[in-house]
């Protein structure tokens, strides 16, 4: 067991996200910006053993190559995580509570991944975390800020009062529903949050949709597990001392205005700090080092650019967790891509994916496709060969695509993903959404279409051909122009005088 040197400290901030890379990766960016933004600030970044190396690498991407000792004021400490999967968070939550208690008491803290014991530093002035009970109080004056690495629209829906357009008191409603139906409160919360009745939902800043469209795919976790997460979101956002949002305000201005109104009424601040993407000179090289197939990916991208030209590639990724629960639909989509001879690159990092041997052979033989386990996504999105991004519309992927100026084809699963898709397609006009890929309650009528999707593999293939023909045609060019205008707005928020930079400075000023 080794003991880390003491770090010179002024303000001390504790950051923590659960084992979901879409939440942890932008939090790394925030950690770096907080450490850079105020001299003497120490950041303790709590993570899991599985994410320890990735977090350190991602932190490094936010610094320039000529910055000496960039991570000296960021302490990365892994906590015990006994959960069986990313959504099994109870044990990790307990480990966080124990670690925070030690930090508050000024005690050393050991990293379970490296065995390093970190010396005590002054008690934290604020905690920034995905989900935690309110910690502020007369005996423990620590501010707790909710870290929102998701669309503001879903957070508003789950947590805001009914009179403003939210669900209202989700905890009370779930308890009542659970008693009536004789089910667990988490399952009742899932039914309420994701909807089954066909009620029209009007979220500020978004077109109307049916409640069941918030879960257009049969979820991997089930209603009880996902309902439990919704309850936690409700409790956090109603108890926290403020919100730090991983997006710039210009991405969802209508929803942010409504969310800000609610926060003002409760005398709490909202800081829009995004986009949370690495912009240091180390960013590209360090990201590429995290893939086992960087050389093969770079060769494929260079070959695609040479053979097919700029903006010719379709990049396909559903993140590190999600994959269609009816995989025959993704292969139907891919068959349309093959028929149209569109060059493509598929990332299949999800543990839920098994690529059929016949499909793998078909991709290998076609000469214009690549299947790979893990991809350096930001590098691919910024490559001149990349034209379109087929995505689940996870918030991190959505913002990364916008920052790269790459329009999207949307295949959302649940939570904020269908809301991002609705916003991108209907409000911003920078994307297409696939409807026949829906499953479960998602096969009920779609509000904006006025009809139900067919939902068969044949209908998926037909829809794919239509959408891809539009995307790589004149209509797609118009969407790309709109995306490039949005890209500039979002990147401007990160400038020295940008709105997001001002919000981060305002947050640091409160410490």
UniProtKB/TrEMBL annotation:
Stored Pfam families: UDPGT (PF00201)
Positions of transmembrane segments? none
Q: Name one GO molecular function term.
A: UDP-glycosyltransferase activity
| Entries under SUPFAM superfamilies matching the protein | UDP-Glycosyltransferase/glycogen phosphorylase
Keywords on record: Transferase
Q: Which Gene3D superfamilies match?
A: Glycogen Phosphorylase B (3.40.50.2000)
Superkingdom: Eukaryota
Record's InterPro entries? Answer: UDP_glucos_trans
User: Per its record, how is this protein called by name?
Assistant: Glycosyltransferase family 1 protein
């Amino acid at each position: 067991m080794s003991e880390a040197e003491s770090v010179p400290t002024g303000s001390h901030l504790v950051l923590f996200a659960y084992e979901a890379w879409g939440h942890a990766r932008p939090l790394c960016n925030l950690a770096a910006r907080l450490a850079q933004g105020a001299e003497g600030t120490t950041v303790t970044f709590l993570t899991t053993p599985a994410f320890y190396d990735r977090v350190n690498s991602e932190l490094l991407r936010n610094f320039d190559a000529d910055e000496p000792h960039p991570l000296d004021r960021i302490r990365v400490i892994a906590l015990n995580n006994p959960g069986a999967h990313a959504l099994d968070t109870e044990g990790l939550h307990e480990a966080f509570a124990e670690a925070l208690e030690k930090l508050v008491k000024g005690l050393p803290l050991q990293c379970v991944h490296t065995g390093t014991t970190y010396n005590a530093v002054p008690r934290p002035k604020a905690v920034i975390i995905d989900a935690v009970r309110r910690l502020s109080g007369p005996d423990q004056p620590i501010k707790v800020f909710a870290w929102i690495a998701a669309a503001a629209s879903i957070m508003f829906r789950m947590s805001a009062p009914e009179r403003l357009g939210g669900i209202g008191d989700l905890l009370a409603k779930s308890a009542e529903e659970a008693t009536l139906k004789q089910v667990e409160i988490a399952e009742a919360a899932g039914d309420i949050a994701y909807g089954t009745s066909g009620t029209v939902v009007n979220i500020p800043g978004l077109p109307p949709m049916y409640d069941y469209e918030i879960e257009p795919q049969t979820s991997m976790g089930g209603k009880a597990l996902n309902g439990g997460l919704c309850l936690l979101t409700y409790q956090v956002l109603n108890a926290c001392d403020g919100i730090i949002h991983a997006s710039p305000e210009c991405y969802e201005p209508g929803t942010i205005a409504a969310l800000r109104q609610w926060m003002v009424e409760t005398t709490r601040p909202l800081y829009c700090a995004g986009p949370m993407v690495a912009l240091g000179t180390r960013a590209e090289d360090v990201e590429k080092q995290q893939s086992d197939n960087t050389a093969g990916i770079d060769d494929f991208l260079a070959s695609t650019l040479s053979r097919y030209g700029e903006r010719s590639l379709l990049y396909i990724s559903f993140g590190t967790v999600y994959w269609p629960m009816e995989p025959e639909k993704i292969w139907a989509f891919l068959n349309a891509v093959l028929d149209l001879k569109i060059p493509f690159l598929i990332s299949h990092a999800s543990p839920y994916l098994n690529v059929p041997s016949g499909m793998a052979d078909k991709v290998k033989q076609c000469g214009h496709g690549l299947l790979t386990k893990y991809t350096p996504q930001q590098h691919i999105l910024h490559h001149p060969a990349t034209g379109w991004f087929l995505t689940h519309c996870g918030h991190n992927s959505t913002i990364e695509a916008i920052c790269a100026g790459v329009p999207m084809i949307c295949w959302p699963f649940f939570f904020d993903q269908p809301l991002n898709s609705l916003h991108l397609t209907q409000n911003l006009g920078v994307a297409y959404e696939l409807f026949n890929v829906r499953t479960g309650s998602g096969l009920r009528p779609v509000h904006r279409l006025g009809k139900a999707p067919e939902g068969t593999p044949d209908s998926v293939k037909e829809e794919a051909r239509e959408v891809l023909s539009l995307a790589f045609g004149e209509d797609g060019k118009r969407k790309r122009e709109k995306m490039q205008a949005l890209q500039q707005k979002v990147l401007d928020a990160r400038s020295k005088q940008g709105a997001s930079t001002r919000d981060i400075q305002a947050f640091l000023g409160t410490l």
